[in-house]
Specification:
Blueprint (H helix, E strand, L loop, with lengths): L2 H12 L6 E6 L3 E6 L7 H5 L6 E4 L3 E4 L4 H15 L12 H14 L2 H13 L3 H22 L5 H19 L1 H12 L4 H12 L7 E4 L3 E4 L6 H20 L4 H63 L7 H11 L4 H22 L4 H15 L4 H11 L1 H21 L5 E3 L13 E3 L3 H26 L3 H7 L3
Antiparallel strand pairs: 1-2, 2-4, 3-4, 5-6, 7-8
């Protein structure tokens, strides 16, 4: 048994075995599992599994493993579930009180709005590895293009640059289709139909369509109009139409009639309604976001970075994902993500202050030593859920510390010197290869690093001097 198989087996044991799992997936850092009975989870034992950095008990149970590790563990996890392999050595018996508490928390999180946001997150989470990979390749292609335009006419460079450009940009060119496929899956429809109706939006031939609307005059469509938002709306609609037809179309002709009628009807609605309307919405989202950053400046940056982690705690951050996607589509980068990344840097600075302040709490100091390296790399969950949030005040000072770095990036945005990223997913130092902005890559990286440093320092200073009351020091500064 290799290391990752052992981790997968231990995790499976701690969550009640394969019989307690409805489905699972993974993002860049977390194993996300739909649990049947949360009362069967041995959370204490799970947190003791070597390699588990933390857990988030939400509607989807999330086990934080970190980049790279999560993919390998997820692969082994899938194999164990497929074969039904499990070890029934769960320690202890779950008491009913624990199950009732978990059930209550689950009901609180099971609101229509939060469920909608989870669906939005689930549409984009599987796309993050491709977004990151394509984004980095795009960045390399851009750097090579800069060498060519500066006078370097090496044959290998002239040949390689367009090849990398195609590899890096192809995914972004068809991102709308991928969003449609995943959206249909989330809304209970056939993924291929979601992709088919989303493909209408990016089809080059759509530019040949012109029609007259009463009171609005001539409408001329453009390929890509409506973008990600249009794709999600179209996929959601075709899923609803498909389910409606399947209940009414005879089984003998269902395979022919249902997909044909679904695609035809929703395709017409997409062309005549969704594309023009969602195009206006998408353009408005991009324009408003850029306007807020350009005119709100340091205040906007401070508020965005400070409030980001509270949004994450309540699951509301998923509403920002379509905004990132629209900005990348319209501008070529999202200027929001680097500002939000400052929140994690504030947590790093705060953790260092806690380490020094609670010099007698060996348990917490050991946790900080293990979590700090990945914190610098942008994986802040272990520091948030394991260190600052349980302490209370240090979480607040950490969030405020991140705000100072956000304010710096907001200050640069006021003069149209945006610091952006060409993809979403990573944070911290890992975000550097994805950076892009109006100042050029070198200057953009320097400004981003300066923002991180400011957030580290501010998080440290605010936590060290204002993060603890005398009573808190007495309570927590001991083994």
């Amino acid at each position: 048994m290799n290391k990752y198989e052992g981790m997968a087996q231990s995790i499976l044991n701690s969550i009640g075995g394969s019989g307690n799992i409805e489905e699972f997936t993974n993002c860049m850092t977390r194993l996300r599992i739909s649990i049947k009975d949360h009362g069967q989870i041995d959370e204490v034992g799970l947190k003791k599994v070597d390699g588990v950095l933390g857990v988030v008990d939400d509607e989807t149970y999330q086990i934080i493993l970190g980049p790279g590790v999560v993919n390998k563990v997820a692969e082994e996890f899938g194999k164990l579930i497929e074969t039904g392999s499990m070890n029934d050595s769960n320690e202890g018996t779950k008491i009913q009180e624990s199950a009732d508490i978990k059930s209550t928390l689950k009901k609180k999180n099971n609101t229509p709005f939060k469920n909608f946001l989870r669906k939005i997150g689930n549409i984009f989470i599987p796309l993050i590895p491709a977004l990151v990979g394509a984004g980095i390749i795009n960045g390399i292609a851009g750097l090579l293009n800069n060498l060519i335009t500066s006078g370097n006419d090496a044959a290998w460079l002239i040949t390689l640059q367009p090849i990398l450009g195609v590899i890096g940009s192809a995914f972004f060119g068809y991102l709308t289709i991928f969003a449609g496929i995943n959206a249909a899956k989330e809304f209970g429809g056939t993924p291929s139909l979601g992709g088919a109706v989303a493909a209408i939006i990016v089809a080059p031939a759509v530019a040949n369509i012109t029609y007259i609307y009463p009171f609005f005059g001539e409408i001329k469509l453009n390929a890509g109009q409506g973008g990600i938002i249009g794709a999600i709306l179209a996929a959601g609609l075709i899923s609803a139409v498909e389910k409606f037809l399947r209940k009414r179309v005879p089984t003998a002709i269902d395979i022919i009639v249902t997909p044909t009628l679904s695609l035809l009807l929703v395709g017409l609605v997409t062309v005549f309604l969704l594309m023009p309307v969602s195009g206006i919405i998408s353009q408005g989202i991009g324009d408003i976001t850029i306007w807020l950053l350009a005119h709100g400046g340091p205040l906007a940056g401070f508020l965005l970075a400070t409030l980001f982690l509270p949004l994450v705690m309540f699951g509301l951050h998923q509403a920002l994902i379509p905004i990132h996607a629209e900005l990348i589509t319209q501008v070529g980068y999202t200027a929001l993500l680097p500002i939000l990344a400052m929140a994690g840097a504030g947590q790093v600075g705060s953790a260092i202050a806690i380490y020094l302040k609670l010099n007698k709490n060996s348990r917490l100091r050991n946790l900080i030593k293990g979590a700090l390296p990945v914190g610098f790399l942008g994986i802040g969950e272990p520091l948030i859920y394991g260190v600052s949030l349980p302490l209370g005040r240090p979480f607040i000072t950490a969030c405020l510390g991140g705000g100072f770095g956000g304010a710096l990036l907001g200050l640069f945005a006021m003069t149209d010197r945006f610091v952006g990223t060409v993809a979403i997913g990573p944070s911290g130092l890992v975000l550097i290869p994805l950076l892009k902005g109006e100042m050029g890559y070198g200057a953009t990286v320097l400004v981003y690093l300066l923002g991180l440093i400011i957030s580290y320092i501010a998080g440290f200073v605010l936590t060290y001097f204002f993060g603890f009351t005398k009573q808190m020091l007495v309570e927590h500064n001991k083994d």
